[in-house]
Design brief:
alpha+beta; 42% helix
Amino acid sequence: MIGFLLITLLIIAYTLYNIPSAEELERQQRIADSIAAVRAQEQKKLEQVEMPQPIVEKPTPVASALFRGDTTTEPKFFTLENDLLRVSFSTVGAYPASVEIKHYKTYDQKPLVLFSPQNSKLNYIFFAQNQEVQTADVVYAVETGPAIAKEGDSAWIRFHAYGPYGSHLEHYYALAPNSAAISYRFSLYGIDSLISTPSPYMQLNWMVRFNHTEKDLATERNNSTIYLRTREGDVDGISERSTGEKHLPGNIQWVSAKTHFFNITLISKELFDEGRISSAFAENDTFVKDLRAELILPLEPAPQVQYHFSLYAGPNNYQALKRTGLGLEQIIPLGAGLFGAMSLPLNKYFIIPLFNWLDNYHLHYGVIILIMTVILRIILFPLTYRSFVSAAKMKVLKPEIDELREKYKDDPTRFGQEQMNLFRRAGVNPFGGCIPLLLQLPILAAMYTFFPLSVELRQQKLWWADDLSTYDSILELGFTIPFYGSHVSLFTIIMTATSVAFAVYNNQLAGVQGPMKWMAYLMPIMLLGFFNSLPAALTYYYSLSNVFAFIQQFAIKKWFIDEEAIHRKIQENKKRPLKKSRWQERLEQLQKQQQQRLRERQKQRSHR
């Protein structure tokens, strides 16, 4: 019962945490109204007769007045590629226009492109000769090297734009073989001849609008956000399940924009002086979120100024991010708050290392989860055994408890006192079965956090489930049932069925009667709706855990527990003189002192 109750509280807390605030709902409604208005205008235009439009010359970018590398304003695209990435660059702005993560596909089996042209921007803003320069508007000349990185030979590309007095801008990108990091250098030459401000600064604006790549857009949005990390190692960001903005002053080392399973991170060798990050929902279902960062860099008026960066793009694999040595693994939320205090250490130091160790043997992930379940049930066996022994003692005492209940049916207080006296004389702790279950809660919380975030399980099939990282569906209903959903998850049904069967077996062993008996059956059914949209890996694990718990209970009862021996032991304990604890002795002493004071007061009153 306590186990089911804890699961219920965990799910309720998770659900309440996911409920958007009133501001978020209002913001989403504004977005939906705006989209509807735009669509209405488009429909109105289609209904009107099309009139010939005058030819208007395309405006020249503002920054071309100072810097220019090409005569055309139309963007041209160039690609760098290695075994892991395919990165496209535009001559307008000279920043990555799209990033494709190889070896991964979208939920509909298309190439996984994190963002496309017009959905990303890397823009430096500074003032030169009293004009605002925005490098994202500059058209650059291109110098190309190898487009594909090979063994011992990196792919590279260089962009140039030229200004007055011999000044020019340069963006240089290099991609080494088998690397998820793009080396990036931004250089300003002769900039001292254009800047008159004593202590100028440059602002770097970075925007990423991620494409929708996962099966469940709502889950993808609830796991997407942007983070900052300072030189001291502190990581801060906007809550994944909300939107807004945050300011962080000083010594910023990197900024990471992440989706559910992937990220792109801007890492700076020269620390940013300060930064502001923001997160907002995208306008339509094609995109996940708009993630932005405004970062400040000092700009020294010197003949040559260089900034060194790297752009990391890859999956949110905990071990791979940890190997960077930059603390990037902290963008994976392994736990927060009360449950995080339990799940985070377990995930970091036990669950993830165990999972990766098993993964090194190239086993199927269904087998890996099975082995993990067995290992965890073996570890929990002592706690399970103690819980079962406590239940067996309570079952042996049940006839005597029933006699007391009948004897003191009109005096509940006296019944409670006599029942506790019986427990003390028999040497039985009524909470002995609860404490072991409470100690299992950290593993429950760790698994609840671990499986939904494991990119290794993404698009891994198991029987009827096409993707272990999201819910399995054997039937699409075509309509939504409140608190359940619009699909039927078979793993969730199996988990519920095994939970009910386990509850029936436990009730028979413990002799539970009355409302508590039926509550044990109703709890798993109530959880059916909560788990219906959770990852198949999680419900598969809980189903296995129920099965192995049933096997453990059966084995303990058959080979480890002798109820007659327990009964004899209890009767022997009842014959022994009850040894009082120090607390009981102290309590009795205080009661005697109070009674003595009361008698003295009564004597004083009688003399008066």
